[in-house]
Amino acid sequence: MRSHYCGQLNETLVDQTVTVCGWVHRRRDHGGVIFLDMRDRDGIAQFVVDPDTAEAFANADRARGEYVLRITGRVRLRPEGTQNPNMPTGMIEVLAKDVEVLNTAATPPFQLDEHGKVGEEVRLKHRYIDLRRPDMIEKLRVRSRISHNVRAFLENQGFLDIETPVLTRATPEGARDYLVPSRTHAGNFFALPQSPQLFKQLLMVAGFDRYYQIAKCFRDEDLRADRQPEFTQIDIEASFVEENDIMAITELMIRQLFKDVLDVELPIFPQMTWHDAMQRYGSDKPDLRIPLELTDVDDLMQQVDFKVFSGPASAEDGRVAALKVPGGATLSRKEIDEYTKFVGIYGAKGLAWIKVNERAKGLEGLQSPIVKFMENVVEELLDRVDAKDGDIIFFGADKARIVNEAIGALRVKLGADLNLYTQAWSPLWVIDFPMFEADDNGRLSPLHHPFTAPACTPEELQANPAGALSRAYDMVLNGTELGGGSIRIHDQAMQSTVFEILGIGEEEAREKFGFLLDALQYGAPPHGGLAFGLDRLVMLMVGANTIREVIAFPKTQSAACLMTDAPGEVSAEQLKDLNIRLRQKAKAETAGE
Q1: Which of 159, 240, 288, 397 could form a Cys-Cys staple with 212, CB 3.0–4.6 A?
Q2: Binding-site entries
Q3: Are 72 and 18 in contact (CB under 8 A)?
Q4: What's the CATH code of the domain at 314?
């Protein structure tokens, strides 16, 4: 129906006849001559309709915003003074000969160029309108390029694209499963996969030594800016590899992707241990663009007569950390109070601080409500954090977990608020993760998942599970975890040891993972992999604030689709087929009886 997209029209087509199809972006009547700005997925172009072409003029005259038109006309240069060099099609216009109204349109719920004035709920309710906006089209175009680039790279490296099941069985992988009731197996449920983890390991056992998949994954968990109940994962697995092999090939993939799509040369990724990341940044995904670090001052605070500091400093699970902010002494008391509220979100009971006004004056040059409690260590403290005039020092004192989360988050917020970024892109590998983490009751759970290989023998793991490291690695970019992976357990004895430490008995292990345990008996090769969050990757590359901006039809923060009103009720007949009776309805029926 068309010869060109709107965005393809340019000076090389002058005097040629073209046919385009699209939506009316804007209509202007200038003294009997009608100007139509037409839009499609490739861009916007200007069309001129004059009264000499009566039928075309009549159709253009009745056209309104978002009408669907087909226009045929001759390309010509715009008159001098009306050209727009900032627009790809701004040097030309099309003199229309034929204008055909393919469909009319109701007045849209919001104007595309005024979307910022309406709430996100309105835009998600009418997502098909929101997706017509040029910036949304561009984001999804970049997403398509990223997927294509990844596929081409992995195919060139010998990886095979293999699909894995979407209906599977529930397995503990860190989040709640979405369950699907079975009609043919009454009382039983499928689960939607949180990841293709077990199936890709089985593919390695089967001998497909290089697998990848751009897979849909599902997790019923609390949502945030970079989480959705259904998300897309670039899943990669390979056999006969060690950590550095997987890290090298995926780093090359990401560096090539940034070069091809954004023309950005990422540096070689540095590596940092999990322990160093937590100590220096309070996070296992530190944003290295921000030149602020946490400094341990436990030994100094054990010497002060201030229990708020000396208590955590002396406790086995406690920590006191200082965060120096160069030039931060200009922060007002109101701003400091706001930061105190902020760290409270992470469980911090307060936010102590010292302003260094004139260090040469000793205590008189310091401004702080706490400095009087640490006179005996204040000089050593200032030396340790390398404090200069005009700096402010914030303190976190509590359980190490709370200090890390609160002061680590404060570091990121200060970096954004004060624009402390030193570079545009800062990638990183975080390695040597602990194998397990303990809850408040001392119960161990896997830091990644129970199929991650430990960096020790089964006997060493059994002797000291809390101190064991794993063969896991995360790729981090600008404070966002792009992907995580590990070398997997390929030995049945090691897998059984991990299950035993996690309190998963033989019977439960057989019930949940019997098919994997069986497969490990039949010549499972050493293998490992990594999974990237495609949505997060696109979000970073296009500069979006949430992954909802780079997903065509996302869910809201409450895991609902406003456009389709999902989730929704189903009929009693459907529930009967599934042998399900809703508790609320059962109570209502009982009350009615």
Answers
A1: 159
A2: 173, 219-221, 228, 448, 481, 488, 533-536
A3: yes
A4: 3.30.1360.30
